[in-house]
Amino acid sequence: MQLPPALHARLAGAPGEAEPLPVERDPAAGTTPFRFAARQVRFPREHEFFEDGDVQRHLYLQDVLTQVAGDPERPRVPEFTCQVAGCCQVFDALEDFEHHYHTLHRNVCSFCKRAFPSGHLLDTHILEWHDSLFQILAERQDMYQCLVEGCTEKFRTSRDRKEHLVTRHLYPADFRFDKPRKSKGPATPGPAVQVSAEALGGDQVPSEGDAMEVCFEHTELPPEPSGERRTYGHRCITRI
Amino acid sequence: MWSRRQRRLRPLSCGVEELRCRRREREAALRKARREQQLVSKRLLRDEDPEKAEGYVAVILGEAEIQQFLRLAQRGTEEKEREKALVSLRRGLQHPETQQAFIRLEGSIRTLVGLLTSNQALLQLEAARCLHELSHSEQSTVAEACLPATSYLLTYLSGHSSDFIELCLYTLGNLIVESEAVRRQLLPQGIVPALAACIQSPHLTVLEALGYALSQLLQAKEAPEKIIPSVLGSPLPQHMLQLLQPGPKLNLGVAVEFAWCLHYIICSQVNNALLITHGALSTLGLLLLDLAGAVQRTEDAGLELLACPVLRCLSNLLTEAAVEAVGEQMQLRDERVVAALFILLQFFLQKQPSLLPEGLWLLNNLTANSPSFCTSLLSLDLIEPLLQLLSVSNVVSVLVLTVVCNIAEKGPAYCQRLWPGPLLPSLLDTLAFSDTEVVGQSLELLQLLFLYQPGAVQAFLQQSGLQALQRHEEVAQLQDRVRALQQTAQHG
After folding, report:
1. Which residues in chain A have Cβ-Cβ distances shorter than 8 Å to B11?
2. DSSP 3-state percent helix, strand, coil across chain B (nearest 5)
């Protein structure tokens, strides 16, 4: 297919539309037995017109198309230590360090040192655990915000919120990032309370807003084979 | 310019012929799947140790071994030991039989989810990789076993560790195509807002993965009713268009994914007017120009992967009534688009002829109602190159003739510019085709030429046009038009 040489220049040139030649139609055009009428065409999703392009797209997804050679990402570097105070993890690859840093040091509560997977969860935690004003307001209005981004519902207690997460958002009942605080009074900044929820048995008398965590943990856990009764939730780092 | 991330692929140990054969088989399978409306593909993100890569064969693990690895990962005293256990598990999970054994083992997913949400960063990463292997399985039972992890995968999308987020996104993308049941869980869990938050990431790897996951979501059967409305209501469309804007920051891998996302949205016809008000037409038009420029500069593999969805989006958007309603800036009137399109058609002819119909479809939609674009084709001398496509295939020929009809039907001023030149000889050639659609379209064009171009009839007669018509006199779909033309030719 031979393209006129001026075409490339036109592409590189200024934007603009052509001044149209005068249009003058004869009513006999396209009349029976002829049927041509200039019209735009639209194709819906599943139309077979798209078959070839769709197949190419999926070949690409399956990585058969462009055989780019595997690249040596993950260059090894001389060992180095995480510089955050108190942390002595050693790394020999930058990506490993990046993930470590973001998981353990990025969204850390300055009051209780717990780490969270996102800024959003950290903010919610600080509000609910370390803000005495929150506690006061929570007595009178719905303050417990739904954890799902984009959902604006608020609840009176963290138990109600959990209920909402389970029924409305299909979250697991033992969602690790929604453990209500075991309140023993107003929030106190300070070292982490390493509560082993399973160690404490039975119900607690419902107090301001929480204490249902124990029930949930117990009732929802299916019986584990003996090799698996590990309470990994109790590093307590990722609770709300 | 156009940056491109290298795909992480294992170097293959088979030969070129085997590759071609494998590709033909895959293509056939995909065509069949598409006809049955079951076209799904999963993406595997495997980060192979390049030293071990050659000829590595996944080991089949039994339930006992799996349990041992899991226990070691949970309870081992040495961190390195725990990591190694998970790595071994992950390698085993590359094999379907290990996957089956894994899901049969009670509590295995629970343990894996526990490791996924633990405070040990590298264990987390390995656990996520194990989940990813499972998500890639073609067995529904295996993929669906990953469901308990989805709320966590979504939570982690708001984090900051780009490798981890990328992995979560590809895993989610694989799960999304698995079944409507999976999507019925993911939607209330907030996947759309989670993706909307994540699209602001500066990392190209994250963006490409996000585009992939989103494209899978949008391709779902129930997407037009259940998914696309909420996507359109989120900030996603504006960000998608931004990521498609040409410029030094445009990344091919990322752009491909989001162009396909846009295509699925647009061809579902839910609310294309909204996209037009966000400037989709001008963004995509500029992208088309950029593509044509790139195609001239480099032999880059994969530009057609982006060209295809861009052409489709433009073609479908042009048919929207909303186009007339927006200001001129938002419309598509720049004649450089025509220049770009022809450069791409030439590229397709060499690299991917199956895309010619799609390019010509856009050309039809540009020219059908636009005297300006028709004039551009004439003034840029594009009729002759267009006619050169006539021998490629029947589908292409019909489209080429349709575009020429679009021009001819606008009257004598246009036909005059189509004449003389190669048009008549080309038409006489197409009259010799046996395909009735091609011949039919040629007859339509002839009627227009006879009507608007003085001298066309004589030239036709002189070049034995009547003989060319004769062979179609008995064809049902063509005879009325053939006779009408014979009459016009003979009696003027």
Report:
1. 69-70
2. 70, 0, 30
HEC sequence for B219-246: HCCCHHHHCHHHHHCCCHHHHHHHHCCC
Residue whose entry in the numeric block shows the structure tokens 């021998």: B391
List residues bridging with B251 in a β-sheet. B3
Which A residues in the span 108-147 are in contact with B, Cβ-Cβ below 8 Å? 115, 117-121
**Of B77, B17, B21, B90, nearest in space to B49 by CA:** B90
**Tokens 């846009």, residue located:** B262
Within 13 Å of residue B89, how many CA atoms lie on the same side as its CB? 36
Would you tell me how many other CB atoms lie within 10 Å of the CB of residue B21? Answer: 12
* Signed CA dihedral, B367, B370, B371, B372: sign only: negative
Residue A98: C-alpha distances to residues A94, A115, B17, B30 (Å): 6, 15, 42, 39
Quote the pLDDT of residue B403.
98
Q: What CA–CA distance (Å, rounded) separates A25 from B415?
A: 11
Cα B225 to Cα B220: distance, rounded to the nearest angstrom? 10
pLDDT band at B472 (very low <50, low <70, confident <90, very high): very high
Any chain B CB within 8 A of the CB of A96? yes
* Residues of chain A with C-beta less than 8 angstroms from the C-beta of B444: 30, 34-36
Residue A133: burial class (beta carbons within 10 Å; 0-12, 13-18, 19+): exposed
Task: Give yes or no for a contact between B402 and B364, defined as CB atoms under 8 angstroms apart.
Answer: yes
How far A64 CA lies from chain B's nearest CA (Å)? 7
Distance, CA of B127 to CA of A50 (rounded, Å): 38
If pLDDT is split at 50, 70 and 90, which confidence band does A208 have?
Answer: very low
Distance (Å, whole) CA B89 – CA B111: 13
Helix ranges, B422-478 (H): 423-430, 436-452, 456-462, 465-470
Strand partners, A91: A80
A76 touches chain B (CB under 8 A): no
User: What's this model's pTM, rounded to 2 decimal places?
Assistant: 0.85
Mean pLDDT of the region B112-140? 90
User: What single-letter DSSP state applies at residue A101?
Assistant: I
Contacts of B307 in chain A (CB under 8 A): none
CB burial of B4-16 (b: ≥16 within 10 Å; e: otherwise) equals: beebbbbeeeeee
Contact A24 B413 (CB under 8 A): yes
* Partner-chain contact B346 A28, CB within 8 Å: no
What is the rounded distance in angstroms from the CA atom of residue B406 to the CA atom of residue A36?
9
Q: What is the mean pLDDT of residues B62-85?
A: 89
Q: Provide the 8-state DSSP code for A200.
A: S
Amino acid at B59: V
Residues in B closer than 8 angstroms to A226, CB to CB, are: none
Residues present in chain A in total: 240
Q: What is the DSSP string of B375-401?
A: HHHHHTT-HHHHHGGGGS-HHHHHHHH
How many angstroms away from the CA of A90 is the closest CA of chain B?
A: 11
Cβ partners under 8 Å of residue B137, min gap 6: B96, B99, B143
Closest by Cβ to A34, choosing from B111, B333, B444 = B444
Q: Is the pLDDT of residue B455 over 60?
A: yes
Q: Is A25 on the interface with B (CB under 8 A)?
A: yes
